[in-house]
Amino acid sequence: MQRTPIGTRASKAAPDTYHAKRGPNLAASFSLIRDLHDINPAQWNALAQGHPLVSHEYLLAMQQAGCAVADTGWAAHYLLMHRGGNLAAAMPLYLKSHSRGEYVFDMAWARAFAQHGLAYYPKLLGAIPFTPVPGPRLLAATHADRVALAREAVEVARGNQLSSLHILFPTDADIEALREAGFLFRENVQFHWFNRGYRNLEEFLAGMSQPKRKKIRQDRKKAVAAGVTFRWLQGADIDEAALDYFYRCYCRTYLEHGNAPYLNREFFKLLHTTMTPNLALVLAEQQGAPIAAALNIRGGDRLYGRYWGCTRYIPGLHFETCYMQAIEFCIKQGIAVFEGGAQGEHKLSRGMLPVRTWSAHWIRDERYAAAIADYLERETPAISDYIDELHEHSPFKKSAGSPADATSPGSVPEASGHG
Which of 48, 62, 144, 377 has the CA that lies 20 to 30 A from 87? Predict the structure, then answer.
């Protein structure tokens, strides 16, 4: 079976289609689509399991706004599997010319390739652009179809002589299929908050150790003393003025760290238009004027903390706007999990617990695959030890148990990412 090379067709061209058979009763046709407009939104979303950040609308906004396109190093190639004329499985893939915006850092691998005169880029990536949120990456209803999709993605990478294929932040179901397809795995950690049926914020704080509870209350008092109030806007209540101010804050956060923002104002305009019910914006205000903002995306029983920024510094404002306000919002709304974004040990003191996240990797060159496998074999125990150490510093009372107990008894909860 010959596969048409990726990255060679205009986005509006007819899809590259070929046929494969993966075991009994799995006859399927595969195609690579460059433009998400050519994929039926309802069929895609049915496979996306209701996760807002894997939805057709979210990915299309990335494309339409020019954020995740070939010119920015994110050339889309959506891998589709049809059976009997029906869309049976799908996978968002991007041909990447760099590793920015991924939140799983493989630049050392790229340097190793370069030092030996080999090209690491372009590589093939199965991920949601600029979005380190766990969720389905092999969009299919059955394990067999997920395995078939993973194996086909490998063949696309192999047939185009790409250095590697990387799947970022997959679900547990994806991991099972990727393991069967021969991928290597890399462990990482994020911090999530779990709702144990708290009736109010005070009940949540009561379960924390006295020093951590005291510190949170002190920080909240600083905001009150500075005259800061908070206002939540959801869905259609978010007007253009609020969105403009938020985007100003978002850009400032990136610029203060010496980076250009990944996302433009058009992207957020499209989200506001096509994903209105999923947006929740908190504004911090002082004397009636906004001074900080944080945009969250809501899906199913989860709230995803995504973007933050401020135009005036006040001690404790970041923690209050991004984390404590979100936690209180989840309690009031009955939301089960708040995912506070990538990295950040500081989140532990706010009652957010470490959860394991994963990435999966296929390396075409067997020599480098062996070297990376050896590296991961040494790195993984270190990450696990780090997670264990984090749990030893849990902000919760030892006698009361940890919220993780209700999610994954006796172990660190996995970030399944189902919305």
Answer: 62
* Alpha carbon distance 108, 96 (integer Å): 16
Number of domains in the chain: 2
Across the strands, what pairs with 189? 356
User: For 43-62, how does the pLDDT look when each residue is reduced to its tens digit (9 = 90+)?
Assistant: 999 999 999 999 999 999 99
Q: Which residues of the chain are under the pLDDT cut of 70? A: 1-5, 7-26, 399-419
Predicted TM-score of the model (pTM)? 0.90
Q: At CA 113, angle to CA 109 and CA 119, rounded to 5?
A: 115
| 395 part of a folded domain | no
Taking the C-alpha atoms of residue 305 and residue 295, their distance in angstroms, rounded to an integer, is 7
pLDDT in tens, 13-42: 334 544 444 444 458 999 999 999 999 999
**Backbone Cα Rg of the chain:** 22
Q: How far is CA 408 from CA 69, 354, 355, 401, in A?
A: 38, 12, 10, 12
Neighbour count for residue 68 (Cβ, 10 Å)? 27
* Distance separating alpha carbons of residues 350 and 352, to the nearest angstrom: 6
Are 357 and 169 contacting, i.e. CB atoms less than 8 angstroms apart? yes
CA triple 50-54-57, angle to 5 deg: 90
CATH number at residue 148: 3.40.630.30
The tokens for 21 are 């058979």
Of the candidates 6, 372, 30, the one whose C-alpha atom is nearest the C-alpha of residue 183 is 372
C-alpha dihedral sign at 183, 187, 188, 190: positive
- 296: domain range? 196-335
Residues 274 and 298 in one domain: yes
Are 44 and 133 part of one and the same domain? yes
- The encoded tokens of residue 267 equal 């992207």
Q: Structure tokens of 150?
A: 């993973």
**Residue 371 buriedness (CB in 10 A; 0-12 / 13-18 / 19+):** middle
d(CA 95, CA 75): 5
Asked if residue 255 and residue 136 are part of one domain, the reply reads no
